[in-house]
Design goal:
Layout (H helix, E strand, L loop, with lengths): L2 E5 L6 H12 L2 E4 H9 L3 H24 L5 E4 L10 H8 L1 E6 L2 H10 L12 H19 L4 E4 L6 H16 L2
Helix pairs in contact: 1-7, 2-3, 5-6
Amino acid sequence: MTRILLIGFMAAGKTTLGRALAKELGLQFIDLDHYIECRYRSTVSQLFAERGEEAFRQIERNMLHEVGEFEDVVISTGGGTPCFFDNIDYMNRQGTTVFLEASVDVLHTRLTIARAQRPLVAGKSDEELRTYIGEMLSRRLPYYSRATHTFCADHLEDIRQVDESVERFKKEILLG
């Protein structure tokens, strides 16, 4: 039974690497945010806006506990998932947790490109975005660093880099 849980900041590449890794290993892929959206028939942004962060984080915790029981799966969590309740402890008990670490510069570039699709950063200027990333990373690092493994996710910009990262992940995390 294999259960790999990917954690890290938004735009670190959890979904990109997770989907490719699951395909390579013949495992099911679950994006926790997408799972929540399907179950609640609402976007994460709408749930956040309508119910507030506290209620959303409880939904997220409940859905994490649901998918955390699945077997032979790669799970991509939301950027804040490990930082609330006992989520990081739960994930560490359930499987192999991997912190996808990306530099502030890489996160800034990725979030600048995808800013419109990310409600938490949509209205921020470039400088505000860089400051936000730095501040949020400092707050979340104590949780992210409790993952079983850390994996550099700076190189996921094209299919070649994703394929190379999957091979490196297999060597460093699964065989290491």
